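Example 156.
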Amino acid sequence: MKFRLSIALCILAAFFFGTAFAGPAQQSSPQDARRMPTGDSVVPDTVSQALLERGEKLYVRRCGGCHSLDRNRTGPRHRGVYGRKAGSVADFRYSKALQLLNLIWTAETLDRWLENPAAVARGTSMGFRLGKADERKAVIAYLKSLSDTAERQGKN
Ligand code: HEC
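Predicted structure in complex with heme C:
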């Protein structure tokens, strides 16, 4: 009896593992190869809705004076900034410092940037700092979620 039970469990386990591994493999497309870097220590891959909502509010309040998601203003537009190369919005006039900055915007680089832009790119024209680490985390999680959505939409 015990023996039969363990065989049944093995079959069940094999089934679950099989589907778990087969799932992503079937969906993989060429785009998966250039997935943006994840696993940052600043913002985990899965975040709560509450953090995203806080991030959005902070973004509007603290960044909205100079930035918007879809239009260049004093600063460049932000949709898709997470995972993008610094200084790469084609129709925005960046400072020399940003043009020369060879960096991809990840949670870690964004965190350093928002803490002190001039320390990342000396001579940048962004004269604004977000001093509180938890506020930076929320804003970055929000920006990241916008890039995630853009990536998903690109696949359909
Ligand atoms: C006082 C205006 C101002 C505020 C407020 C401001 N920024 Fe900026 N931001 C700029 C300017 C100007 C640039 C372009 C910098 C350059 O060219 O040197 C910039 C550039 C950036 C970049 C680089 C984008 C790219 O395409 O490489 C990021 C990221 C960024 N800002 C994020 C933020 C976030 C997030 C906030 C809010 C927490 C914020 N900024 C608040 C003015 C501002």
